[in-house]
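EI: anyone free to look at a 272-residue chain?
SC: sure, send it
EI:
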Amino acid sequence: MNDAWPPLVLAVAPNGAYKTKQDHPALPMSPAELADTAVRCLDAGAAMIHLHVRDADGGHSLDPDAYRAAIAAIHAQVGDQLVIQITSEAGKRFAPPAQMAAVRAVKPEAVSLAVSELVPDAPSETEAGAFFHWLAQEHIVPQYILYSDQDLLRYQDLIRRDVIPGTPHWLLFVLGRYTAGQVSDPKALLPFLTHHDDTVPWAMCAFGHLEHACGVCAATLGGHVRLGFENNLLLPDHSTAPDNAALIHHMRDAATTLGRPLADADTLRAMF
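SC: here you go
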């Protein structure tokens, strides 16, 4: 094993903003289903769950009460054995003020934030910067989502100018967002890594049947991995996964082959 490698964080993104049970009957939507998925993914090797909640019609929601119900259900099943990271995703429904207000209301342990959504232009920097600094004051761990190397360069500029504070955080490199059909390729990591100096931890997520291959590539290069039905329903052999835990299980096996140990939730918390 390479002693420079940190333990590998496996995060599950079990549902996302758009898929429903018509896409897969095991896609979790209710608090009880999310809690059951959390148990199964914890057993498979996950250290974190990336949490989306839905409204009464199954649509994407940022409702604080829905978040509180899902978080309570997960805590009842796994305690603190998983980091619960909520999303602030716009999901074609929410503007930045509503996204930030939801996070302020929930005060989660961790949150994912798309830089391109919350800081779309220079005039938005003041309000977004105040929000990012509030997160640091509240000890809420942010993960900044970046969709391209240009997003990464913009994030670095925001860091230099203290719009994003240099307090502990990590990054998520999204592979394939702008490709035809949103199909990812491991080579899509290279533009990100060309510009990233490894001073801040990073993870990746990917779309489609090469999600596992992209994850193995990231794990080999010292990053962390987010997997799940949000972006992919297929196992490495292109068959349909029975549930989210199966995707985590296959990546755990790959980590064992690489000789990279898995992080648990406390290891992840200690990173920040």
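EI: The beta strands are 10-12, 48-51, 53-54, 60-61, 83-87, 110-114, 141-146, 170-175, 202-206, 224-227.
SC: 👍
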